[in-house]
């Protein structure tokens, strides 16, 4: 037989339990109330009465004023018992007052005619507190002191965490500074100020000769909509710097196999990784008609803009492809990565290593590396989607730093001080240099020769570090 049914056929005998402590009584009432709540709807009036009788028998005296035991009274009892339970330290007399107050202000039962609000639908603690306040049961001074003590504990804990974070940072920055002389030595070794030429010097671009549709001013992509004149000027400086640096690289790339016709032999191929809508590479392609440019990006709209710009300018040496750096498999000679955020720059360089291609990169958004790597570590199954590159990049730095510190330095070094030369935070400047020289060092370890320079003039962009790697194949 179903135990429920069996129980129902054996009415419980009301029993006094005078020996129970108030706490035990409260617990007992509460348990009964939960049972009531579960069963109430399935029971007939008679059975409910029996259960209430039992509940009342277990309740302390103050609850024994509740008949008649209608369904509604049951709810009231239930609610009262719960309130009682929450009135832990108040003592029987006060608890009774609380309940009466609860009923009188309509939160335990209200609306007359058996319309009850169930406690579960009310904000119990809030209402109970209101009631206790109105009955003067709350020792506000005691509460204030307790709150003050709690707040002090919270403040102390926060100050402790802050101090230990600062100590950790100081320790980490000390390890960064320890590497300082090695970083500066490498940076000095790679630093090649003339990499981007000089403003107004030879190799700068005569803009009037470039078709308008290929010029940065022809598109609003890249935020070239406000301060247009100044932004266009800066983009022109960037492109002049890149054109100059690219020319230096192309001079090293062996010419296509002879004899002509060149059409039957492979032409030199430059790939622009993360080309956007071609604001950098299209001008470079126009300036180097004998070289093939492949522009790749993961945004379809960028690819259509590139195609339409090429059509309008009638240039034939550009191919645009919707593909990510990681998925790009073709052969090529030189890779560009201009303002390709975070790990994108490294993915492009890895492709250059694969194909022994030279590269020209202008990194940005170093801090993004950390986000991508951490996401990858949090989702090991999907880590390939987050980063195809391991950090630190070079064997040299792998031997000096843990990944965690390296990632912190990517965030620390992700500053823009406007001229790229100082910044008030010397550690941040050092961290930025560290990431640059690590990128240089990994290439050097693979036989590349490295130069790090800056856009000319520096105001061309806050992201003005230009890193150039000449492949061992082009080093002759
Ligand atoms: C800030 S824009 C730079 C555009 C362009 N290089 C220039 O100099 O104007 C970065 C571009 O890189 C693309 N990109 C980012 N990660 C990429 C990846 N892993 N593979 C291909 N494209 C990527 C983005 O869609 C975006 O269009």
TrEMBL record:
Q: Where is the Methyltransferase domain?
A: 235-370
A Pfam family found in this protein is Methyltransf_32
Q: Which GO terms describe its cellular component?
A: cytoplasm
Coiled-coil positions are: none
> Which residue ranges have biased composition labelled Basic residues?
159-168
Low complexity bias (residue ranges): 1-22
- Lineage top rank: taxon: Eukaryota
Region span, Disordered: 1-26, 149-175
Ranges of Basic and acidic residues compositional bias? Answer: 149-158
Q: Which Gene3D superfamilies match?
A: Vaccinia Virus protein VP39 (3.40.50.150)
This chain's protein is named: Methyltransferase domain-containing protein
Species source reads: Triparma strigata
Q: What is the lineage of its organism?
A: Eukaryota, Sar, Stramenopiles, Ochrophyta, Bolidophyceae
């Amino acid at each position: 037989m179903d135990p429920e049914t069996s129980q129902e056929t054996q009415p419980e005998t009301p029993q006094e339990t005078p020996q129970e402590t108030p706490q035990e009584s409260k617990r007992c009432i509460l348990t009964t109330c939960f049972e009531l709540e579960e069963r109430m709807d399935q029971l007939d009036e008679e059975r409910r009465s029996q259960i209430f009788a039992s509940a009342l028998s277990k309740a302390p005296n103050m609850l024994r004023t509740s008949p008649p035991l209608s369904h509604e009274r049951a709810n009231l009892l239930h609610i009262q018992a719960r309130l009682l339970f929450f009135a832990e330290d108040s003592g029987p007399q006060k608890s009774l007052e609380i309940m009466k107050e609860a009923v009188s202000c309509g939160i335990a039962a209200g609306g007359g005619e058996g319309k009850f609000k169930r406690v579960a639908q009310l904000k119990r603690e809030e209402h109970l507190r209101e009631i206790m306040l109105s009955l003067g049961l709350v020792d506000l001074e005691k509460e204030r002191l307790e709150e003050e003590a709690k707040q002090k504990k919270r403040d102390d804990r926060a100050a402790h965490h802050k101090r230990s974070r600062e100590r950790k940072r100081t320790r980490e920055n000390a390890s960064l500074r320890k590497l300082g002389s090695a970083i500066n030595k490498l940076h000095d070794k790679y630093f090649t100020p003339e990499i981007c030429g000089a403003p107004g010097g030879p190799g700068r671009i005569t803009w009037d000769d470039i078709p308008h549709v290929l010029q940065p001013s022809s598109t609003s992509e890249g935020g070239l909509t406000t301060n247009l004149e100044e932004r266009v000027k800066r983009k022109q400086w960037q492109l002049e710097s890149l054109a100059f640096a690219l020319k230096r690289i192309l001079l090293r790339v062996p010419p296509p196999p002879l004899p002509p016709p060149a059409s039957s032999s492979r032409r030199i191929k430059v790939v622009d990784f993360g080309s956007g809508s071609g604001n950098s590479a299209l001008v470079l392609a126009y300036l180097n008609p004998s070289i093939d440019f492949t522009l790749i990006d993961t945004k379809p709209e960028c690819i259509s803009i590139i195609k339409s710009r090429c059509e309008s300018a009638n240039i034939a040496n550009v191919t645009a492809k919707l593909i990510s750096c990681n998925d790009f498999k073709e052969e090529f000679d030189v890779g560009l990565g201009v303002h390709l955020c975070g790990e994108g720059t490294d993915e492009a360089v890895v492709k250059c290593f694969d194909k022994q291609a030279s590269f020209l990169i202008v990194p940005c958004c170093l801090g993004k590396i950390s986000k991508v790597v951490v996401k990858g570590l949090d989702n090991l199954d999907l880590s390939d989607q987050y980063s195809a590159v391991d950090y630190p990049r070079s064997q040299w730095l792998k031997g000096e730093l843990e990944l965690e510190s390296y990632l912190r330095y990517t965030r620390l070094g992700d500053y823009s001080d406007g001229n790229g030369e100082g910044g008030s935070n010397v550690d941040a400047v050092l961290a930025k240099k560290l990431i640059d020289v690590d990128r240089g060092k990994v290439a050097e370890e693979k036989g590349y020769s490295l130069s790090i320079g800056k856009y000319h003039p520096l105001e061309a962009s806050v992201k003005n570090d230009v890193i150039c790697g000449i492949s061992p194949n082009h080093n002759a």
